[in-house]
Amino acid sequence: MVLQVGEAKKGSTELVITWEALPHNYRLEDEPLDNTGQPLLAGALSESLELNGFIQTQMLIASNFGLCATLNEQLVIKAPDWLYIASVLQVLPERRSYTPNLEGDIPTVVMEFLSDIDGAEYSSKQVHPPGKWFFYEQILQIPIYVIFDPEGGLVEFYELENGHYKLRQPDENGRNWIASMGLFLGTWQGTKEGRTGYWLRWWDEGGNLLPWAVEKVEKERQCAEEERQRAERERQQKERLIAYLQSQGIDPDNLPG
Questions:
Q1: CATH says 33-66+77-211 is which class?
Q2: Which residues, at least 6 apart from 167, have a Cβ–Cβ distance to it below 8 Å?
Q3: CA torsion angle for 242, 248, 254, 255 (degrees, to 10)?
Q4: Which pTM was predicted?
Q5: Per residue in 65-101, pLDDT tens?
Q6: Neighbours of 67 (CB within 10 A)
Q7: At what angle do helices 213-247 and 37-51 cross, to 10 degrees?
């Protein structure tokens, strides 16, 4: 099945964009990761969504994952560091690529974590293979594009407006609201899985941080410890009361009704 938008006129530079399924035997290249921190950053974003009941069956949330389109009969695949798609037509257990429009919604959000010194995340190159910026903005027309610098903690939050990305400023808490997800996106500084630095985190509409598993476990441990201490205080208070009653010649087991 081929979904096509627009036809190029002879001699024109108009792009013909088609959404074609990959052949079953097509071999996707495994793009090398730029550094070991990127999978941790991507995994942390997905983990808190899953733990807090955000992820639904029809959603697609992935990292280093192939987004496909065919431009002028040439296949283009880009693998953003993290992406969110609200609804896909078919849930596949081992999906390695996705063709928007053909297989479901276009992504709502794509993210790139800065690592390349050549600025590939900002590339508007139109000739094959097109740059990431051009591909996300003009071909897929993804509503939100986030570029994150893990070293400096800077988040660039771009939103599609009149066909072009416009930089949005964060709120007073340093976060950006994603209405389609019902969540805020911002940065947090700390340590997880041996990595100390800046992380992208989610907050709900009430400003509550969506915790990671280790944070949930720690909170439960603290609650259990607080409960243990409360029970110990009550035990000590009871013992002091019994001792006082006994000192007054009163049997604590036979108090008047």
A1: alpha beta
A2: 156, 157, 158
A3: -90
A4: 0.82
A5: 899 999 999 999 999 999 999 999 999 888 889 999 9
A6: 24
A7: 60
